[in-house]
Amino acid sequence: MNRTSELQGQVAVITGSAVGIGRGVALGLAARGMSIVGLDVDIVGNDETARQVRALGNHFMDVHCDLGDPTAIARAFAAVDARFGRVDVLLNNAALWLDCSLTGGSFESQSVNFLRSMNACAMGSYYCALAATPLLRKHGGDIINIITEHIKEGHYITGRPATGYDCAKFSQWRLTESWAIELAPLGIRVNALCFGATDTPMLRAAAPHIADKAMQPADLAQAVYNVISHGPGGPTGQTYLFGTSGSPREASVRQIEALGP
Ligand SMILES: NC(=O)c1ccc[n+]([C@@H]2O[C@H](COP(=O)([O-])OP(=O)(O)OC[C@H]3O[C@@H](n4cnc5c(N)ncnc54)[C@H](O)[C@@H]3O)[C@@H](O)[C@H]2O)c1
Question: Which residue intervals of the chain are DSSP H helices?
Fold first, then answer.
């Protein structure tokens, strides 16, 4: 089923919308008619996402908040309810890649890095899903967790310093499967995207040498669209693996096409 026309007037909430994949998905869904709510700590970047979404003729609600702050998240979703009265898609996309190694710094620096990594991704995903569920259940909808290939067998990353990032990603995996079971009776599907290198500020900072041949944020927008295109009754609880690091972009794009109905 093609849901393009059905997306008109629907609302997508995207965390980490200021740059990279978050901005790419915001633009991809706005181009198909959705209103976008973007949650980010980066005011300047989110202003630019807002400008680009509005240039497509769609609404962008700019929410400046830290995803580790449950009070701010509750306030943000109350504002979404007041303005739109619904949420159709929640994309838990934000994450932080920080050195959390036990030998890489002081107790204070490493524990702060671990907390920030968990807050941006694991806690943020939980708080947003908790606040979004009453709005998602009104018409049914989708929660999509942006994970990584790191949680998949054969792609585990061990011995790397970003243990906070990886722990948050394993948390999102567990949340995906548990929420899929809990929310199925409410008409809410929960799925996750597990993939590799994508050309964003995060990749440019971590591995600039592979960024040029990586997937683009627009490819991830297509992946999100293909997953939501299944509509009610589509798969839930899936952790889709595609676009693993080192794959040619054309091969990744073909795998993304296969995610659709
Ligand atoms: N880029 C890749 O190669 C790649 C590969 C696999 C998975 N991913 C995943 O895709 C997602 C997006 O990655 P990206 O490369 O676009 O990242 P990015 O670092 O380029 O952007 C992340 C965004 O999240 C925001 N953010 C971080 N912490 C926040 C917080 N506490 N509160 C609010 N906003 C916060 C940042 O300000 C930024 O705008 C992440 O979950 C990442 O793990 C990326």
Answer: 20-30, 43-55, 70-83, 107-118, 124-136, 163-183, 201-206, 217-228, 249-257
